[in-house]
Amino acid sequence: MDRIYLDHAATTPMHPDVLAEMVKVMESEFGNPSSIHHYGREARKILDDTRDELAKSIGTKGNNIIFTSGGTEADNLAIIGYAEQNRSKGHHIITTQVEHHAVLHSCEELEKRGFEVTYLPVDENGLVSIDSFEEALRDDTILVTIMYGNNEVGTIQPIAEIGKRLSGHQAVFHTDAVQAYGIEKLSVEELNVDMLSVSAHKINGPKGIGFLYIRDGIKLARQLFGGEQERKRRAGTENVAAISGFRRAVQLSQQELETKRSLYRNLQNRFIGTLEESGISFQLNGLLDNSLPHILNLSFPGTNVEAMLVNLDLAGIAASSGSACTAGSIDPSHVLVAMYGKESDKLTNSIRFSFGLKNTQEQIDKAAGDTAKIVQRLAKNNRA
């Protein structure tokens, strides 16, 4: 059976060039970057070169980049690290109801530590209202954390506009750009953000490595204690091989940015077109014209998400019901709950298809055709 992987929003396969780079480094550059001898200096050069490459990709400079173990640690360091370091300025934080759990659970932890968090609602397209944001903003707000693009439905938030509204306010602005990086063109200056989180495994790089951009002058409370790596902001010997792979993944993603965006939009349209031709009933969750091009979240009335996923897998199609971090959970998607309410049928019949490396038009045509047949069969069984 030829299997079709349509769950790139959960994780992506490593690019062959990334793997080759990592193997080369693991074989030859085993030194500790903190050591001053030749081996350490060679490892340090890989870190420095990568830091500059990452910085260039978002329009900043190398010393603003901190290596982390991935998006979750980057979010935790930004949110908890900033709040704890700046308690004297206030205790209020603003986020949204549709954030990744790395952000939501960080905010929930801060509530236990005495902070107050406002969780902004979204409309039926998953979009935050600028008016609701401005109503929530207070003099004692110290941090705003709003994701760039949603990992379940793809909705892109008005980050640049929110950043402008914060001009002159004491609050620092953080965005989780894990799902958007490598697909959207990002500039921290144009977005008006002070911190930004990224993970390598979403752009065909290795798992276990990411970065946090931190604007000059921002101080964070340490979350890891040990050595003085990463300019004393993140202790622990750096993963040199993974960092080298991260660099190669970034180079490839930046070179192919516009090509990928165009391809993914085309795949979205082909998938939808095939479903429309089949005559099945389905609805789009979110908006195509204000979303990440590689994510397509669809509701199939008359079906059940568990049965859909099992049947898709039997047909060789890997898809998802939403966030990979909640796989196996019986709870409905918190994103769809925020968009449609707890009573909506969409909570139990929505599937996320996400596109990426090696997906072809032929694969999408087949996957969409098979999906239509499965929906027809399940809907018929439910009516019987």
What does this structure look like?
The protein is α/β, with parallel strands linked by helices. It has two domains: 4-12 and 257-383, Aspartate Aminotransferase, domain 1 (Alpha-Beta Complex); 16-255, 3-Layer(aba) Sandwich (Aspartate Aminotransferase, domain 2), CATH 3.40.640. Helix content is 42%, strand content 13%. It has 13 helices and twelve strands. It has a seven-stranded mixed beta sheet, sandwiched between helices. It has a three-stranded antiparallel beta sheet with strand order 9-10-12. Helix 7 links the parallel strand 6 and strand 7. The longest helix has 23 residues, at 361-383. The two termini are 30 Å apart. The mean pLDDT is 94.
How is this structure best summarized?
With 384 residues, the chain is α/β, with parallel strands linked by helices. It is built from 13 helices and 12 strands.
What ranges have pLDDT less than 50 throughout 5 or more consecutive residues?
none
In terms of structural class, how would the helical and strand content be classed?
Answer: alpha/beta
> Average pLDDT value?
94
Report the C-alpha radius of gyration, rounded: 21 Å
Helix content: 40-55%
For the record, the CATH class of the largest domain is: Alpha Beta
CATH superfamily of the largest domain: Type I PLP-dependent aspartate aminotransferase-like (Major domain)
What percentage of the residues does DSSP assign to strands (E)? 5-15%
Q: Helix and strand succession?
A: EHHEHEHEHEHEHEEHHHEEHEHEH
